[in-house]
């Protein structure tokens, strides 16, 4: 049984391992192992994870069974968009998917931002399982981001949004 809780610094090594495994399982076939490894090195370095953990207008959650971290979620208030929370990360270990862990993390994240009216995320257009999950949970597609500017991945993304209960 996994329980959702706020992550602590002591969780970051296990969170990073979960993200490495999940990213390779999800994206290697789409973008190649080397590109995925580069993304992981940039996005999930210990310093990058710690920066997310200590951000004041954000929530960093884990699903924990007392021994293992089975999933994680990270969302933060948008710096550009009013009353909008950005869902940056929602990953469940490949062997634990489709057991409700992602749903439970997502449900908790929805309640963490009382001033937000909209939740927005970007998802890889070829990640059919993630798109189906988000559509099932009330998101609609509102556009695309080509991520082609300097410092971006160059990997296009669908932009999805959901109105939050106010």
TrEMBL record:
<dbReference type="Pfam" id="PF13673">
    <property type="entry name" value="Acetyltransf_10"/>
</dbReference>
<dbReference type="InterPro" id="IPR000182">
    <property type="entry name" value="GNAT_dom"/>
</dbReference>
<feature type="domain" description="N-acetyltransferase">
    <location>
        <begin position="2"/>
        <end position="165"/>
    </location>
</feature>
<keyword id="KW-0012">Acyltransferase</keyword>
<dbReference type="GO" id="GO:0016746">
    <property type="term" value="F:acyltransferase activity"/>
</dbReference>
<protein>
    <submittedName>
        <fullName>GNAT family N-acetyltransferase</fullName>
        <ecNumber>2.3.1.-</ecNumber>
    </submittedName>
</protein>
<dbReference type="InterPro" id="IPR016181">
    <property type="entry name" value="Acyl_CoA_acyltransferase"/>
</dbReference>
<dbReference type="InterPro" id="IPR050832">
    <property type="entry name" value="Bact_Acetyltransf"/>
</dbReference>
<keyword id="KW-0808">Transferase</keyword>
């Amino acid at each position: 049984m996994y329980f959702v809780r706020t992550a602590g610094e002591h969780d970051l090594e296990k969170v990073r391992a979960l993200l490495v495994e999940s990213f390779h399982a999800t994206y290697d076939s789409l973008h190649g192992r080397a590109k995925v490894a580069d993304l992981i090195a940039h996005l999930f370095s210990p310093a990058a994870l710690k920066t997310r953990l200590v951000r004041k207008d954000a929530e960093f959650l884990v699903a924990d069974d007392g021994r293992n971290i089975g999933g994680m979620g990270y969302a933060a208030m948008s710096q550009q968009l009013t009353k909008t929370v950005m869902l940056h990360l929602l990953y469940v270990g490949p062997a634990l998917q489709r057991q409700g862990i992602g749903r439970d993390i997502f449900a908790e994240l929805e309640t963490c931002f009382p001033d937000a009216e909209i939740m927005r995320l970007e998802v890889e257009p070829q990640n059919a399982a993630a798109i189906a999950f988000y559509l099932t949970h009330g998101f609609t597609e509102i556009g695309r981001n080509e991520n082609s500017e300097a410092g971006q991945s160059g990997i296009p993304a669908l932009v999805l949004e959901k109105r939050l209960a106010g």
